[in-house]
Amino acid sequence: MRRLGSVQQKIPCVFLTEVKNEPSRKRECQQFQVFATEHLNPKALASDVANAIATEKLDGTCCYVSSYKGKPYLWARFDRKPNKQADKRFKKFQYSQKNSTEFTWSVEEDFKAVPDSWIAAHGVQRCNGQPQPDECGHIPEGWVPVEKNNKQYCWHSSVVNYEAGVALVLRPWGEEELEITIVPLSELLEQTLELIGTNINGNPYGLGSKKKPFHLLVPHGVLKIRNAPAVNYQQLVGWFQRCGEANVEGIVWHCNDGTLVKLHRHHLGLKWPDVDTYLNSRPVVVHVDVTRYEWEFPVMDLFTALSQFNGQKFEHIRDIQFDV
């Protein structure tokens, strides 16, 4: 599990990358793509990535658990983006410059306001104490607390209950299976997790339905890749093109010195999702029993819906369907 003190670091690619002037297949409105070269990132080499632990990179949205209002809270990722005028200037610069000059930002004037509770992610470059934009023109991986009645984060809210102080988590169970269970938020403090489900990134894992959305938190680093390939460009390309355990969005390597490096399929020009995901090939058991808690969970919430399946095993996570 990833414990990073205050907030999540920006994770570099395991290979050095190059930018090509063609529309991104990952991010809308991004007029360039980032591809991995065959050369290992020096940071990965220095951290002995060859002996690192390889884990599945999930396709969701990153979250963070930390204290807010005196108790553990779920925090959602909130990018600090440039305003229209600054974004227009930056795009013009991207298309016209010859890499001989650097674009100059004014954080106070060029960026949209953020909530008072917003905090910048660890690893964001600072100048005179002010967070600075990255090469793409935004400050990534800042955080805002997920308030209970904030409709913008309703899918985040569905997996936590602050009164009971718990969260719905997907994690390994035994050698092959997965488990959906209730975990105290206090046990997740200072960890980052991935929110996956019906309304996140096109739902590549097939969770729930439009009428009955289904979302879960997955702690980062818990889904280890047992037969990971060597950290070699050609071997990784070949591995990602196989079936089974290779049907993942990417790999995150956890090095012994705490360094994290990653590789996405799109860094290799490969499609995602290609076929059925590896996550959906594993049996899953439900251990959700709301009757154990003094707090009475709402009748219509996700905790109560999953509680009807307590103790049941499913061949695939997509097989969990709720009564509408």
From TrEMBL:
InterPro entries: RLIG1 (IPR041211)
Protein name: RNA ligase 1
Reaction(s) catalysed (UniProt annotation): ATP + (ribonucleotide)n-3'-hydroxyl + 5'-phospho-(ribonucleotide)m = (ribonucleotide)n+m + AMP + diphosphate
EC number, UniProt record: 6.5.1.3
Alphabetic keyword roster: ATP-binding, Ligase, Nucleotide-binding, RNA repair
GO biological process: response to reactive oxygen species; RNA repair
Known cofactor(s): Mn(2+); Mg(2+)
MF term (GO), any: RNA ligase (ATP) activity
Pfam families: RLIG1 (PF17720)
Keyword Ligase belongs to the record: yes
Signal peptide region: none
Upper classification of the organism: Eukaryota, Metazoa, Chordata, Craniata, Vertebrata
Primary enzyme class: ligase
Species in which this protein is naturally found: Lepisosteus oculatus (Spotted gar)
Function of the protein: Functions as an RNA ligase, in vitro. The ligation reaction entails three nucleotidyl transfer steps. In the first step, the RNA ligase reacts with ATP in the absence of nucleic acid to form a covalent ligase-AMP intermediate and release pyrophosphate. In step 2, the ligase-AMP binds to the nucleic acid and transfers the adenylate to the 5'-PO4 terminus to form an adenylylated intermediate. In step 3, the RNA ligase directs the attack of the 3'-OH on the 5'-phosphoanhydride linkage, resulting in a repaired 3'-5' phosphodiester and release of AMP.
